[in-house]
Amino acid sequence: MARIFIVGSGVVGSATGKGFLRAEHEVTFVDVARPRLDHLRSQGLDAHEVLDLRGEPDAFIFLTLPTPSMGHGYDLSAFKDGTAAVGRALADTTAAHVVVVRSTVPPGTAENVVKPLLEKESGRTAGEDFTLASNPEFLRAASAVEDFRHPWMTVIASRSARTRERLADLLAPFGGETRLFTDPAEAEFVKCAHNIYNATKISFWNEMWLVSRSLGLDLDPIAQTVARSAEASYNPDYGIRGGSPYGGVCLPKDTRGFLGLAEAIGVDMPLLEAVVKVNDLLAEESAPDVDELTVGAA
Predict the structure, then answer these.
(1) CA-CA distances (angstroms) from residue 225 to 199, 203, 215, 238?
(2) Quick check: helix, strand or coil at residue 30?
(3) Distance of alpha carbon 241 from alpha carbon 248, whole angstroms
(4) pLDDT band at residue 298 using 50, 70 and 90 as cut-offs
(5) N or C: which end of the chain has fewer CB within 10 A?
(6) What is the rounded average pLDDT of the residues 124-139?
(7) 175-188 as b/e, with b when 16 or more CB fall inside 10 Å?
């Protein structure tokens, strides 16, 4: 049984903590919002406003703090406040705790924001007095508890091999594929790219819907067919090697040709325009001996 603290007990924190409780670990929830604490306590859960590590054994401290967007950027103010509070709690303990960044944050946050804050507030040194890890969540708000209990992917990153091993052992009973990284920024990048890829796919089909509507076509059977016919939909290795533009005959021809069709019927396709623009940029930078077998030739 592991000792676990959940710092930030909203949707992600609550689902994470409750998942660990069902696995019979000892869990304490921490949050600054009184209504949230009252709700957790009404469920018989151990919930506190302040993290207190005095007398505690080695523990996992999960940072599940809010990181909302603010314009074109992340608002890390609440995240930093919560992290600083963890640092102050670390000052009162001699146990070897593992601080785990589970919030969605820009790549580099664990080592460039969390680490210096913890060291400053605790007076202790990362890698010696405590260790740092990244374990991004892949939870959907409507099914967060079930998603935690039955993950399809678990991503863990830490400079410490022992910390990677301990986190992997803690999370292994829940199942799912595990991917390990040595640089926390890699795990943070995975989560950002994961969400952005999903958003891009939704916008792609919405853009196609605009065109199909203008042409009087029903997009649903078209999209369902393309989901089976397009290799990018069913082959996880297709098109994921960065640094090479798509080539061949069909992809350049049809991306540009479809833009002409959309223009003729008065439909803007900013996403497809961006696809062509990015490819043109990569084509300018790429070496002349690009292997077309790896760049999606049709």
Answers:
(1) 20, 18, 18, 18
(2) strand
(3) 16
(4) very low
(5) N
(6) 96
(7) eeebebbebbbebb
**Distance between CA atoms of 49 and 29, rounded to whole angstroms?**
8
Give just the sign of the alpha carbon dihedral 121, 127, 131, 137. Answer: positive
* CA pair distance 43, 36, nearest whole angstrom: 11
CB atoms within 10 A of CB 273: 14
Tokens of 260: 């002409």
**205 and 219 in contact (C-beta within 8 Å)?**
yes
Q: What are phi and psi of 177, to 5 degrees?
A: -75, 135
Q: What is the CA radius of gyration of the chain?
A: 23
How far, in Å, CA of 86 to CA of 93, rounded? 11
From edge to edge, which strands make up the β-sheet containing 47-48?
Answer: 47-48, 26-30, 3-7, 59-63, 98-101, 131-134, 153-157, 177-181
Per-residue pLDDT tens over the stretch 62-120: 999 999 999 999 999 999 999 999 999 999 999 999 999 999 999 999 999 999 999 99
Tokens of residue 69, six digits: 């967007």
- Using one digit for the tens of pLDDT, what is the confidence trace for 9-68? 999 999 999 999 999 999 999 999 999 999 999 999 999 999 999 999 999 999 999 999
Token pair, residue 15, equals: 């689902």
Nearest to 259 by CA among 220, 206, 207: 207
Return d(Cα 165, Cα 171) in angstroms, integer: 10
Residues 156 and 239: their CA atoms lie apart, in Å, by 24
Given this model, what pLDDT does residue 293 score?
A: 45
* Position 287 pLDDT exceeds 80: no
pLDDT at 286 over 90: no
- Written as six digits, the tokens of 169 are 């052992």
Which residues partner with 62 through β-bridges?
6, 100
User: Do you know the residue count of the chain?
Assistant: 298
Whole-angstrom CA distances from 205 to 105, 235, 268 are 27, 18, 14
